[in-house]
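User: Let's play a game. I give you a shape written as tokens, and you guess the letters that built it. Ready? Here's round one.
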């Protein structure tokens, strides 16, 4: 019979397991030493190998007979291992009696380096005298591979960190360089704007010096003028003037020098003063323009940079409530007359040649009479050559004639005001300077009649 709570089958299983373990543990101590998973060796105090197990011999690729009693422990090590053993390992073992976990490398079979971890302990006699050193050698190849991979990973991470820092520094330097370039560009832009403003101011002053500061008051007449600058960065060559000749006569002119810039300004200045001087000597319009042609041709024809202009020159002679006009044109658009009754017409001067191109030029004279309410308009071709509409068509002389005819005959200043508004409406279609000069006879004021 069985005791209560006991299982006969369970006891048989335990007995069988114990029998299996007993059979497995029947290895002799010598076999356990020789076939251990690590290397064992015993050396005398001078390092001579007295005993070594089979495992370590297989790692070394040597026979026991060539090792025991013939080699020292240091003979199994690499050159670096020998130096470390002699300078650190051996002194510590003698001083402390043991040392453990020291990483060395032995020369394995085939001359390969085999990383190992070494632990040594001194065996002493009963009275404490050291007899031999027992050493355990563990295969550290997997650990070394792991450490190498770990080191490689750390080096790669460190390299990546350095590259990231370098990239960050490069990005920061690029940002700073971009900011510096932006500051320099902004400074250059401000400097360019300041230089442009100064240039525009200088050009404006120079342009004003090429025109009369104000038109003189002509007895019995009214005068108006306007100058439209297409670009503040370019000096135009349009000009006009009105000045007295004496003996109740007045001279006027309006013209356009070819080109723009300082050279055109120099021609403009020469032209204005030549016209004034020639008019004082002989005010006949054809004679004055002939003198100007001679001066310009002699001055500019031989230098490879010919200069020329178009111009209208005329003389005003008041006669009671009328004004006689005698003028001549050299290649310039015809003067436009706005009559007191609202009609508009051109005072044609066909055949007038450009001034300064040839040594001799033909100029066409014309005469007209301005009555009260009549206005004569002189203009440069910037007005008629303006581009208008989606097709960018020329404004033209017909459109100017129609525009003038649609304006009430209110005198030169009113006509100039209307035309300045027209010029402003052209916008970017007006790419050339335009000068306007209007001369007229005021209409008589209506005198109310008194009741009797």
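Assistant: Ready! My guess for every position:
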């Amino acid at each position: 019979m069985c005791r209560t709570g006991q299982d006969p089958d369970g006891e048989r299983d335990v007995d069988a397991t114990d029998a299996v373990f007993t059979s497995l543990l029947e290895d002799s101590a010598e076999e356990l030493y020789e076939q251990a998973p690590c290397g064992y060796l015993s050396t005398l105090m001078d390092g001579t190998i007295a005993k070594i197990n089979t495992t370590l011999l297989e790692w070394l690729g040597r026979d026991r007979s060539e090792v025991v009693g013939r080699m020292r422990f240091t003979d199994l090590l690499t050159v670096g291992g020998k130096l470390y053993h002699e300078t650190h390992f051996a002194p510590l073992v003698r001083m402390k009696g043991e040392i453990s976990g020291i990483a060395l490398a032995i020369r394995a079979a085939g001359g390969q380096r085999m990383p190992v971890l070494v632990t040594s302990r001194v065996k002493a006699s009963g009275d404490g005298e050291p007899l031999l050193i027992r050493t355990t050698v563990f295969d550290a190849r997997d650990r070394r591979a792991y450490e190498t991979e770990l080191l490689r990973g750390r080096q790669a991470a460190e390299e990546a960190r350095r590259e990231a820092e370098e990239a960050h520094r490069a990005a920061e330097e690029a940002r700073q360089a971009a900011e510096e370039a932006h500051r320099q560009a902004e400074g250059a832009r401000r400097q360019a704007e300041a230089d442009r403003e100064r240039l525009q101011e200088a050009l404006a002053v120079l342009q004003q010096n090429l025109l009369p500061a104000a038109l003189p008051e002509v007895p019995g007449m009214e005068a108006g003028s306007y100058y439209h600058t297409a670009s503040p960065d370019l000096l135009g060559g349009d000009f006009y003037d009105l000045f007295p000749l004496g003996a109740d006569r007045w001279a006027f002119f309006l013209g356009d020098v070819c080109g723009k810039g300082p050279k055109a300004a120099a021609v403009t200045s020469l032209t204005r003063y030549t016209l004034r001087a020639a008019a004082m000597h002989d005010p006949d319009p054809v004679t004055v323009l002939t003198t100007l042609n001679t001066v310009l041709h002699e001055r500019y024809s031989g230098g490879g940079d010919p200069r020329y202009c178009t111009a209208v020159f005329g003389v005003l002679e008041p006669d009671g409530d009328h004004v006689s006009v005698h003028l001549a044109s050299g290649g310039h658009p015809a003067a436009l007359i706005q009559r007191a009754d609202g009609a508009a017409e051109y005072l044609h001067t066909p055949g007038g040649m450009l001034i300064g191109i040839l040594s001799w030029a033909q100029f066409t004279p014309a005469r007209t009479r301005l009555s009260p309410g009549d206005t004569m308009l002189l203009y440069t071709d910037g007005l008629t050559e303006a581009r208008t509409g989606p097709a960018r068509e020329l404004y033209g002389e017909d459109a100017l004639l129609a525009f003038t005819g649609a304006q009430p005959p209110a005198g030169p200043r009113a006509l100039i005001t209307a035309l300045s508004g027209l010029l402003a409406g052209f916008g970017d279609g007006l790419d050339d300077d335009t000068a306007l000069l209007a001369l007229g006879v005021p209409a008589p004021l209506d005198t109310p009649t008194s009741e009797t």
